[in-house]
Model the fold of this input.
Amino acid sequence: MAKKLPSVDVVLVGFGWTAAILGQELTDAGLNVVAIERGGWRDTPTDFAVTFAQDELRYYYRHALFQEPMRETLTFRNSPDQTALPMRKLGSFLPGTGVGGAGIHWNGQTWRFLPSDFSARRHNTERYGAQAIPDSMTIQDWPVSYDELEAYYDRFEYLCGISGKAGNLNGRIVDGGNPFEGARRRDYPNPPMQMVYGPTLFGAAAKDLGYHPFPAPSANMSRAYTNPLGVTLAPCTYCGFCEKYGCGNYSKSSPQTTIIPVLLRKDNFELRTNSEVLRVNRDPSGKRATGVNYVDIQGHEYEQPAEIVILCAYILHNVHLLLVSGIGTPYDPRSGEGVVGRNYAYQIVSSVNAFFDDKLFNPYIGAGALGVAIDDFNGDNFDHAGKGFIGGGYLACWNTNGRPIENHPTPDNTPKWGAKWKSAVAKNYLRTASVSTHGAVMSHRNNYLDLDPTYRNAYGQPLLRMTFDYTDNEMTMSQFLTERAADLARAMKPREIKVNARKGHYSIVPYQTTHNTGGTVMGDNPGNSVVNRYLQSWDVPNLFVMGAGAFPQNPGYNPTGTVGALTYWAADAIRSQYLKSPGPLVQA
Amino acid sequence: MPLILNRRHLLSTGAAAGAAAALGPRQSEGHEISGDVPWSAGDANTPDFAAGGGYQFLSSAEVEFLNAAAARLIPADELGPGAKEAGAAVFIDRQLAGPYGQAAHWYMQGPWAEGEKTQGYQSRLSPAELYRAAIKAIDDHCRATLNGRAFAALSADEQDRVLSGLEKNEIKLADVDAQTFFDVLLQNTIESYFSDPLYGGNRDMAGWKLIGFPGARYDYRPYVGRHNEKLTFEPVGITGRPGWNPA
Done:
């Protein structure tokens, strides 16, 4: 029997980026807010100190900061006719656990989506005709536009102190920035990072080929920065331990380095750690959430009543919570009906290594978002006529790290072990640059999330089941991007290149990206979405669902910038509209 | 008291008047954090060091196998020490004796099925169990097919052929998937060679010296703009480096 606790105004499920933003915004509005986080407390001086943060084995290969499959995982299959099996250990993606969530161990690549990304169906239909979108492709327009989100992108970028260079200031194209980006009201809060050699060469080669290179937007600080909340971040030291690691130097934006020092000192905020939310409770009508039940680390179960429930966990957990709580109609790929779990999408990535004899790149001088990119082949920045796909991705030369377990590239035809492998690793470690592609994944009828019929988690609940594979659109697009990447790599004039193209079915084994999207998508009516344009549940108006689960399909950028913008957008709607008149903010 | 439905309260305070009331005393037995950022002197989430002393998990026969295999996977040569000299067996022993070896963080509930390659690891064996079963099966295979000799007693060429047969799944082992084991063995051997020396491998930072990785440093700001330069750093580990410490 769960112990019932005193009611609060708002309960936040999970305590990563979205919960930290909402905690700050809603306590500012005078509300009592409790955040419930499944993992533990952690902070820079105690958990990521520079005296032990640079530990590749512990943090990446032994998963010190990530979700533990032992407690919570999912099952996976490529297609609905297969039997899904458990993801027994992490691989393709690395959801976080603990305070700060995956906002602790991200690289810091902080993008805005293109204006046309927000109208993927309408835009592509108008330019290429209805036949450009196959029947099985279930993309839809976002119920919010780039222009509406612009102010909220700006807020997130200034919260984080993003380093970068504007390419479009109020409609004026600025040399050296990304000329394809949507108009922004002002420049980034910090200048671009100082550039290392590989990306510099890439930028010169891209320019020679007529493309438009620019320094990638980065949540690694190019200089000391004090954000609007008064929290100060330190200059990045280019140590090369960002993604999969906590930053020891207060140099990477995270909930801990931007919000938590302010939020935790408020007397109308409380954080409960080591507490896993098991379900969202509703009243007998089913149309009103009454709070959540959670279990603490000792196995004691509590009921936390609340006037507003906001799901702020990772998308996989948010979808799982809705499904096990029976909220919304689960998606059925046979009929195409139902919305919870619909339009799960991901990212498609590839790379080309360029091996040199005469150039030293010193890859260990790195940072998670240190690089030069081109956007010439992203979204609809190029003519897709006759190409057989829609969407695109950016190409970049990153210098994220030289961590040697992960990063020891060898040329084609090198054995995987033995003396030849050893000499190839020794010869090429300092002398390799890489061009990577980061592609969009459109939503597809057979890619979705539901509950597994067989396997259960540590709490006895069914596991989430993921059914996902790349479709012809993604494979054709990725091949196109990879060929462009190879052209760029060759233009850097290396001794030889190695093309790591995307081949075969999607596999859950090798790490690709932690850019899982969809499943709680936003839309303009309850028939095509879980939440409305303010991330409010159509079925339960005092329930909101944050995160990349809202993306109707996944554009060719890293998601965090848009996740942050959507969170500020939703917080603003709650503060300015919902609190005045609790109820649906959009009439179905 | 919930504030939202108390419209009079909202009206009287406005939407940004700050907290009307603190949340009160602790309500549940989870770790409740409020009022300040938790910190206490000396609190640090430091790594688990590989203890010295003898082997904790591996038998002597298993150590012989791992030493022989490590010497072929990353051999000693004119470029420097190989994985065996750098401590692969000690590293793997400590890993198998710890949470990784027990698959402590993995989902290890049935039912079990082989599945597709894209579905990942589906063996019911933990890494420790996998090593135990596979090394015995490989030695049995070698004895049965190579004149009664265990893997460690084979010539280097013979060892390479066996490893290659495992890698390509051409050798079938009793009760263990050869390729699954080979992939784990190779991965762990590379980890031993390139991880921080505090875990028992990468002895004298041999792996890092081979490639020019400076180790657990955290500030390269003076070097960012020094493009295409040969930089010489003595590598350092989390526990320092041999030159700093008394022998």
